[in-house]
Amino acid sequence: MLDNRIRDLRDSIKGVSDAKQRQPVEAEIDTSRVQADILRLQARDAHAAGDRLYWPIFNLDLKNPNAPEEESHDPDVLLDKYKTLLGQIDETENRLKSELAEALAHHFVGEDA
């Protein structure tokens, strides 16, 4: 809107050669131009702030960490996952048994002494 006002003011002094008549209009043009520049900077800053806030949300190049992983229904893939999980379970059970055996050994060794 300020740009339109500046254009209208310029148009209003076209052909006016008297400096006294031009001076108040030119001063208003300068004031309006400064206000327009300030508003442009504020708009640019607000746009940049919005981009910083919303770009990560709408950036489709990034994987959504909250989205569930795609599940395969291929029996071979599912069987491999199952075998892997069984191996992890066995490993965890063995570690727990070992830690429990160490803890009990220290407990009983302390009672014998």
Tell me the fraction of residues in β-strands, as a range.
under 5%
The SSE string, one letter per element, is HHH
Q: What is the number of helical segments per DSSP (H or I, 4+ residues)?
A: 3
Mean pLDDT: 86
Q: Which bin fits the share of residues in helices? A: over 70%
In whole angstroms, the N-to-C terminal distance is 93 Å
What kind of sheet is the major sheet? none
Using only CA atoms, what is the Rg? 38 Å
Category by helix and strand content: mainly alpha
Low-confidence stretches: none
Number of strands: 0
Shape: rod-shaped
Structure characterization notes:
By secondary structure, this protein is mainly alpha-helical. 79% of the residues lie in helices and 0% in strands. The protein contains three helices and no strands. The protein has helices spanning 2-12, 19-58, 75-112. The longest helix is centred in the middle third of the chain and has 40 residues, at 19-58. The radius of gyration is 38 Å and the shape is rod-shaped. The termini are far apart. The mean pLDDT is 86.
Identify the notable features of this structure and list them briefly:
113 residues, mainly alpha, 79% helix, 0% strand, rod-shaped
SSE layout and pairing:
Elements: H1 2-12, H2 19-58, H3 75-112
Concise account of the structure shown:
With 113 residues, this protein is mainly α. It is 79% helix and 0% strand.
